Every structure is written in structure tokens, then in C-alpha cells.
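User: Structure please.
Assistant: Input sequence and predicted structure:
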Amino acid sequence: MEFVTALCGTFDDGKPSLFELLSEQQLASLLPPTLRYLLTVLTHRYPRHLLRILNSFDELYALAGLLVERHYLKTRGGSFTEHFYGLKREKALAAEIPRAASSAPNLVRDALKLSDVDIWKNLAVMVGIPYLKRKLDEAYEIDAPRAMLGGQYTRPPAKGAPMKERFLYYYRWFLRKVYPSLNAAYYFAILAFNLGYLFDNTKYHNPFLWLIGTRVRRMNGADYQAIEALEKAAATTPRLSGGSMFSPRNMSRRLMGGLSLVLPTSIFALKFLEWWYASDFAKQLSRKAAESLDLPPPTVTGLVEAQARNKPKPKITRTSEDGVEEKADDDEAEGGAEEEASSKEPTPETAPIAASTLLPIFTVPPPKRSDMCPICEDEIQTPAACQTGVVYCFSCIHKWMSGTHARQEKFMTKEREGKWESGEGRCAVTGRKVLGGTEGLRRIMV
């Protein structure tokens, strides 16, 4: 990277290579999913205390990132991950001043140091835009499958609809029509700036840094001297003022400074765990440990009864006076077919019972083939898995869990109202409650 930059013009020692910037961005992008995974593991053990924190992870991470990044911008001149790579942020100049930077580096550093307004602009780029993009990506992943339901989901609100309903309609329209193009333009702009930065045609590797007039540079001797002087002054301040070293202000300063040591340690630990679980040695140990375990096959409530209901009945035959077996006539065969069709409908004796209402739940038998949808009894289209492991058509299970499927409406007659549950919010085969409703469905990529 530096060789290409040197070919295009004068080599600049303070300009970081594109490889350094991309490595820093990759490290910054790995922090949110890593912390979310660790919090998810802890939530499984202590759900009562950590479930609310996990549900609000994006907001809490943005708030913590705002505090940490502001501290590092004010004291180190760069973000948390940029300081790990020895990078800093400073105001962009119209032209380079190599002589002044070499003869008076301290004065140049103080002149190009970020002001309070510049710090808040950089915080908006470092924390605000990534948070907004994460929320939009999450909303698009949820809205895109629902748009396949057709006009029932994309129908505009009626006249006189409340403001919230109209806002949700235009927000979904924005996600379907505008956001894919906007997202593509975002990545195309980043690619264009990266190529321009690589061939020394621009000082900025990111379009947002160009908008706020900030560039990323390597830290020099003056920056390290300023950081060392700041740490010495912070260490001697409690002694001179008589304050305790365990005061909240001093403890927060020590905590922020200790993050620079925690980051490489945590990265090493995560890489070690990744190697451990991907290596053959760990697989052999886990295989030997599993060989001594005799686990019973899993059982699902309601599935056994559903399979029993789906068994075909024996053919109807009769014996004549001469002792010869004869097949039943057409009327009897039709009557047997009607009985077999009626046997597909669950009975209160075989249907699963709801724990809250103690009412039988309307379910459907499992399909005869794995590529058939249990609800529509046809080949699966746009497969989606329920939390119980049963696979359906996405539109079928979505309507079933919403309580609007045609089979539910046909079954739930006036005679059965109050005596049966329609299966709304439940798995159509097992009758088990699905956590999160339709949000608990998972699309399957085939």
C-alpha cells in the first residue's frame, strides 16, 4: 500500500496505509457482535437480570461507545480502536506543511487538535451513523420477508388512520423502495474514497470524514509525549488536591485507560477460543466425551398424537355367505373416505391441551413427506422453520400464527368458539407456544 502511494507522489510518513485503516475498521466492527454474544451467553444463565439489557443492547452499546470514544478523542486524539493501531484524528489542511511539522511538531499538533465541536462531529460519524445503520439493517431484514405476503401487508392506511399507522406505512415503504438503493450508494461511496485514498488522490478514506473536515494520521513523538504528560498530571492531581484515588472521577479515568490493555488480551482470548473450537484436537476430545453418553431420542409433545391421527385406515372388506371376501361397493368406499377425511380433524381426546385455558388446540397432522407443508399439504414455498423444528411455507405459518389462515377460520365455527383454541401464536403441528410470535420464525436458505 505504501509502495503504491510512494509511486504516485511524495511519501508522507504521517499518512497511514489503507491496510491499517481497513484493519482498524474491521476491529471496530467486530466489537458489537462479540459483546452481544458474550451477553447472550450470560443471559442464558441469568435471564432475570440480563434479559432487559440484551433487548436494549444497541442503545446501551451506543451510549457506552459515546462515553468511551469521547474520552479517547479528548485525551488520545483518536478513537478507541485507532489508538490501538497508533492512529489519531486531526483537522484537515488545504496543503501539507512538512517543514513546520518537522521543526515544531508540538505547535502543529496543538493547531490541528480537534476542538469540542469537531469531537462531537466525529462522535456523530463514529457512533451515530453505525447505530442508525444497524437499526435500519435489522428493520429491513424483518420487513423484506413480510413484504412477500402481498397487499395485505403493503396496503396503504385508510383515510383518518392514526398518525402512528401512517408513519409505519411510510417507514416500511422507505425500507422497501429507498433503503436498498441508499445502502448501495453508501458502500459505493466508501469504495470510491478508498480507491482515491489508495492512489493518493484524496486525503480522506471515508466520505463522512470528508464532510466534517477530519483526516486520520499516524501518531508521532509529540503525540506520545503529550499523552505521557497527561497521564503524569492525572496521577499527581489526587495527591496534590488531597482527593482519593478511589473517587469516581479517578476510577473512571483508570478504567478508560485500562481498556487499551483489555482489548489486545480479549482479542487474543477470542482468537484462541476460535482456534480451539475449529481445531481437530478439540473435536476429538468432544467426540470421546460424547461416546460415553447414552442420550435418549428427543420427544415433542403433540407430535405422536398427530402421527397417530394421520395413519391410513385399513381397506373396507366384507365376507359373503360362501366365505369369499369382497371389496366394499362405491357407496361404502365413499363413506370410508369421508370418515378418513373427518379423522384428520383433531378430537378433544387427542388434541394437545393449552396450559392457560385448558382448552384443546387445533393442530394439523405432520406431512407424509419432508418437502410438503403441513398446513397447505403442498410443496413448501419459501421455507420457514418454527422454534419446534417443523418447516412450513412462510406465508402459511405466518397466517396461522396470526390466526387468519383459511383452515383455522373453517374449523373455528360458532359451535367451537370458546371450546377450542384456533392455534394462534402456536406451532401448527405440535401446538406449542412460539416465543415472539411471527418474529420467532426463521427463514431457511436452500
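The beta strands are 87-91, 214-218, 317-319, 325-327, 383-385, 391-393, 442-443.
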